[in-house]
């Protein structure tokens, strides 16, 4: 089969996937509409309604009522339903991947990887909910027994980002469903189609549609204020910028809504002289280029010790220069477009500023001509501390490398940020790896590992990178309340 035929087959398959998205256009007569664009071509691929706050409140009522009924179902029923959902999601891997790739811009291979990653959360919580946390202890006074148990927290408001449009939805909705909660879901306005398909498949698996109410809107501020002012919302989960997260926390505080926040990052990646060079280059490549660098845990500041720096930069620049940029669904493409025009313009500005201030451009550095929001995989070496890129969450395929001499020096630089989501350490010395990981002020650390995320891990940050955790058993507890029963005892003999 020729490359032309492969391309046409993929385009046809992706168009069919887009055509299969549920039609929500008649749910609220008179609703405004907004367009969804393919960032590879800048062409409109769908139009969706921007619902009013009144409509959103109606959906909250539906989810709240359904959640009260769902909370009474058995753990086994919820587990079996989620296991069925996992199977259905995997069976629809290609369909989901095409939708992700077309609306968000990641390559088809990466989109297929996201489907698996997203489905893993569903499978994880299908099992995790059968291991409920509880406790039994004696009152020290000896006159009572204390039992602790967990109960569903209530209706959740789930606000998802655009960069992982499926995984960030399942990472929130799966523990909510497992715990026995209903939810109102607001996908990002740039990538809502994946959410619509995902929720439809979850409903096909047996999760009540009333339990998962999707509201698309371009007025995020009014939507959030309206729902967080309603006492029926008892849980907020948000992934996005620190600025928006701070505003949402203020709104949530009025009704004492339990909140989990996964916010901005400024991840340091540290390569010591004793690192395995090949593994360090590969790890940095993955930590930087995954999702085109549009990840909150992307390696943002790459610190390389003097003794290995030249070889590391040469290896990374060679690898990045071989990255093939192109339309996300095309065969052989390593790097798709950025999500929108603002992102592409931001890359150009950051690279230009760094070069003017003394950084060495070792690979890439420009945007290809033509339609689409593309930018080359780029390596900057010897980035000065006053460059904007050294103090900004890059969110793009630009690796900013600086050099260091001592462990003390690099730790001071790595922690010199208000953010603390992720960090990376590359060294063959186990003591150094653990000591540096302990010293990093981040919620997660990849040690000789450029892709540390897992459904089994408690994902979350420190400082201004958020609060609460997603994934693992801790992620389920975010949707539960701890209760205790104190049972009085008296002697009978």
Automatic annotation (TrEMBL):
<dbReference type="InterPro" id="IPR016162">
    <property type="entry name" value="Ald_DH_N"/>
</dbReference>
<feature type="active site">
    <location>
        <position position="262"/>
    </location>
</feature>
<dbReference type="InterPro" id="IPR016161">
    <property type="entry name" value="Ald_DH/histidinol_DH"/>
</dbReference>
<dbReference type="InterPro" id="IPR016160">
    <property type="entry name" value="Ald_DH_CS_CYS"/>
</dbReference>
<comment type="similarity">
    <text>Belongs to the aldehyde dehydrogenase family.</text>
</comment>
<dbReference type="GO" id="GO:0009450">
    <property type="term" value="P:gamma-aminobutyric acid catabolic process"/>
</dbReference>
<dbReference type="InterPro" id="IPR016163">
    <property type="entry name" value="Ald_DH_C"/>
</dbReference>
<keyword id="KW-0560">Oxidoreductase</keyword>
<dbReference type="InterPro" id="IPR050740">
    <property type="entry name" value="Aldehyde_DH_Superfamily"/>
</dbReference>
<feature type="domain" description="Aldehyde dehydrogenase">
    <location>
        <begin position="32"/>
        <end position="483"/>
    </location>
</feature>
<protein>
    <submittedName>
        <fullName>NAD-dependent succinate-semialdehyde dehydrogenase</fullName>
    </submittedName>
</protein>
<dbReference type="GO" id="GO:0004777">
    <property type="term" value="F:succinate-semialdehyde dehydrogenase (NAD+) activity"/>
</dbReference>
<dbReference type="InterPro" id="IPR015590">
    <property type="entry name" value="Aldehyde_DH_dom"/>
</dbReference>
<dbReference type="Pfam" id="PF00171">
    <property type="entry name" value="Aldedh"/>
</dbReference>
<dbReference type="InterPro" id="IPR029510">
    <property type="entry name" value="Ald_DH_CS_GLU"/>
</dbReference>
């Amino acid at each position: 089969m020729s490359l032309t035929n492969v391309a046409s087959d993929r385009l046809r398959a992706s168009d069919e996937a887009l055509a299969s998205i549920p039609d929500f256009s008649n749910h609220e007569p008179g609703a405004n509409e907004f367009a969804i664009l393919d960032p590879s071509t800048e062409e409109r691929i769908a139009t969706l309604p921007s619902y009013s706050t009144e409509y959103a409140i109606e959906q909250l009522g539906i989810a709240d009522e359904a959640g009260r009924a769902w909370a009474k179902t058995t753990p086994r029923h919820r587990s079996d339903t989620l296991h069925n959902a996992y199977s259905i999601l995997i069976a629809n891997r290609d369909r989901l991947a095409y939708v992700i790739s077309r609306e968000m811009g990641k390559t088809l291979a990466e989109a297929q990887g996201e489907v698996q990653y997203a489905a893993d959360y569903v499978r994880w919580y299908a099992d995790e909910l059968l291991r409920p946390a509880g406790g039994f202890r004696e009152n020290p006074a000896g006159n009572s027994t204390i039992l602790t148990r967990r109960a569903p927290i209530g209706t959740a408001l789930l606000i998802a980002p655009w960069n992982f449009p499926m995984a960030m939805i399942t990472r929130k909705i799966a523990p909510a469903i497992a715990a026995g909660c209903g939810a109102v879901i607001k996908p990002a306005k740039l990538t809502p189609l994946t959410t619509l398909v995902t929720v439809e498949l979850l409903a096909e698996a047996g999760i009540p549609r009333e339990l998962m109410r999707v509201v698309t809107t371009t007025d995020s501020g009014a939507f959030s204020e309206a729902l967080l002012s309603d006492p029926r919302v008892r849980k907020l989960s948000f992934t996005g910028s620190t600025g928006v997260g701070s505003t949402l926390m203020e709104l949530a505080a009025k009704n004492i809504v339990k909140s989990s926040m996964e916010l901005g990052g400024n991840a340091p990646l540290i390569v010591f002289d004793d690192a395995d060079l090949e593994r360090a280059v590969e790890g940095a490549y993955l930590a930087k280029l995954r999702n085109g660098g549009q990840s909150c845990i992307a390696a943002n500041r790459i610190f390389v010790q003097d003794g290995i720096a030249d070889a590391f930069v040469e290896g990374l620049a060679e690898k990045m220069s071989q990255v093939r940029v192109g339309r996300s669904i095309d065969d052989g493409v390593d790097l798709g477009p950025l999500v929108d025009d603002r992102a592409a313009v931001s890359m150009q500005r950051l690279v230009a500023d760094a070069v003017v201030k003394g950084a060495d451009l070792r690979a890439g550095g420009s945007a290809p001509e033509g339609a689409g929001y593309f930018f080359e995989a780029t390596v900057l070496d010897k980035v000065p501390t006053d460059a904007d890129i050294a103090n900004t969450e890059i969110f793009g395929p630009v690796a900013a490398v600086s050099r260091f001499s001592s462990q003390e020096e690099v730790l001071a630089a790595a922690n010199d940020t208000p953010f603390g989501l992720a960090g990376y350490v590359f060294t063959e010395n186990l003591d150094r790896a653990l000591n540096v990981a302990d010293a990093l002020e981040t919620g997660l650390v990849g040690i000789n590992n450029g892709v540390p995320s897992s459904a089994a891990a408690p994902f979350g940050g420190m400082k201004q990178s958020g609060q609460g955790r997603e994934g693992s058993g801790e992620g389920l507890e975010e949707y539960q309340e701890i209760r205790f029963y104190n049972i009085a005892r008296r002697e009978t003999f």
